[in-house]
Amino acid sequence: MKPTPNSPPELPPLLAFGAHPDDIEFGCGGVIAGETRAGRKAHFVVCSRGEAGTHGTPAIRTAEAEKAAVLLGASIEFLELDGDAHLEVRAVHALRLAAILRRVKPGIVLAPSLAGNQHPDHWRLGQIVRDAMRLARYGGIAELRDLATHAGAQLFFYAITPEAEPTDITPVLVNVSAPEAIAAWTAAMEAHASQVSARGYVELQLTRARLSGLRSGVGHAMALYPNEPLVLDSLARLSPATWHF
Question: In Å, how far are 18, 134, 153, 198 from 190, measured between CA atoms?
Answer without folding.
Answer: 17, 35, 30, 12
